[in-house]
Design goal:
The chain is of the alpha+beta class and about 375 residues long. The chain is about 45% helix and about 15% strand. The chain has 12 helices and 8 strands. The strands form 2 sheets. A 4-stranded mixed β-sheet has the order 1-4-5-8. The radius of gyration is 21 Å and the shape is globular.
Length: about 375
């Protein structure tokens, strides 16, 4: 596929660059970890008001109905400009679009896209992280005052933004007698529901993004079931395929900017030049270029109308490798400065260490590629 901008795409890119230049004062990511989530949400509001959220989302559900190429251009230009990335709503919004009822789409999609209503994902559990299908959070069908409901009990961990979320996209077990992959459903749970307790977790990047969430006899309307009972595993797989997909193009441009900054420090003598330094920079560039080529292929498939699938796991593995390669290179070349300062550079490094875990561990991604892409046997 030819990725040279068409005249319309070039005009869009030009308008976007001008708009980003005008709003560059809003790019700063606060060093205060507690302020970062609110700053990210405020930036999301700004992008939404300017018409840059939901570019490839169907018009009938609140998007702009453009080609996925426009999403790629947006993410590319955000990274190039040093602007914060978009809050992770694309995977949730597409899950609601594909599997939600008309009522759920009408009531929930506008707030989700605009950022006015914030969401978290209740997926991992203390004993079900990599083996997500082993989750034990239960949702039992019940009746309250003649109203069909589910009564939820269980515990989730590493739930991003749970402390500020209004809703939770919850994976839970509704069919305890079914095989573990077949007994999972998705409930859309208001975080204001009685019986929900949120305990923030401070991560190595000094951020309170993660939380442990406990559900104790939480009553959820049966109308908040997404899709059908027992369909949760397929919904989660489709959601995760969107999460691991070509949106990673933002990582490419962001890492490219940071890598060029390191190269400039070598050229100007702020970092001593040597063959080993050049080898480290070259290795980081190679990982980044591999990710770029694979994402271009994924984007081509998306433009041609294909839903994201198992091949997104290749993108996820390459993204983690590129992110960690840059983090190692930055720390090696800058020495103790990021460690002593404990600022944003240090946060970028320690966050890169988690890239092989969040969104599905690297080992799980390789299993998905082996079994679902290459067709290899399980044993």
């Amino acid at each position: 596929m030819d990725f040279t901008d068409t005249p319309d795409e070039a005009a869009f890119r030009s308008r976007l660059r001008s708009w980003l230049a005008e709003h560059s004062s809003e790019f700063d990511i606060p060093d205060d970890p507690g302020a970062r989530a609110d700053a990210a949400n405020a930036w999301h509001h700004t992008l939404y008001r300017a018409g840059y959220i939901g570019l490839s989302f169907p018009v009938e559900y609140g998007g702009h109905g453009l080609s996925p190429i426009y999403e790629a251009i947006l993410n590319d230009e955000l990274g190039r400009a040093g602007a914060p990335p978009i809050e992770g709503v694309g995977h949730l919004s597409n899950a609601l679009r594909l599997f939600g009822s008309d009522r759920q789409r009408t009531e929930l999609l506008p707030g989700l896209l605009s950022g006015a209503v914030r969401w978290c994902q209740g997926f991992s559990e203390p004993e079900a992280g990599s083996d997500l299908a082993g989750l034990t959070t239960k949702a039992e069908a019940a009746d309250v005052d003649g109203r069909p409901v589910f009564r939820v009990n269980g515990r989730k961990i590493w739930t991003s933004f749970a402390a500020v979320a209004d809703w939770c996209f919850l994976l839970c077990r509704t069919e305890p007698e079914a095989p573990k992959h077949a007994g999972i459903s998705v409930l859309l749970v208001p975080m204001s529901s009685p019986g929900i307790e949120v305990a923030p977790i401070v991560n190595a990047a000094r951020n309170r993004e993660f939380a442990e969430v406990t559900f104790t006899d939480v009553v959820v309307d049966a109308a908040n079931l997404l899709g059908e009972r027992g369909q949760g595993w397929s919904i989660a797989n489709q959601l995760l395929a969107y999460e691991r997909g070509p949106s990673d193009i933002n990582w490419i441009s962001r890492l490219a900017v940071q890598l060029r900054a390191l190269e400039d420090d070598v050229r100007t003598g702020r970092i001593v030049d040597s063959p080993s330094v050049r080898a480290k920079l070259g290795a980081a560039y190679t990982e980044l270029r591999a990710l770029e080529v694979k994402v271009a292929r994924s984007l081509t498939e998306r433009v041609n109308g294909a839903l994201p699938g198992a091949e997104g796991s290749v993108d996820k593995v390459l993204m983690a490798r590129a992110d960690q390669a840059f983090g190692h290179t930055m720390m090696d070349l800058r020495g103790s400065t990021p460690l002593l300062a404990e600022g944003l550079e240090w946060d970028l490094y320690v966050w890169s260490r988690a890239a092989g875990i969040y969104g599905g561990t690297a080992q799980i991604q390789r299993n998905i590629v082996a079994q679902r892409v290459l067709g290899l046997p399980r044993k």
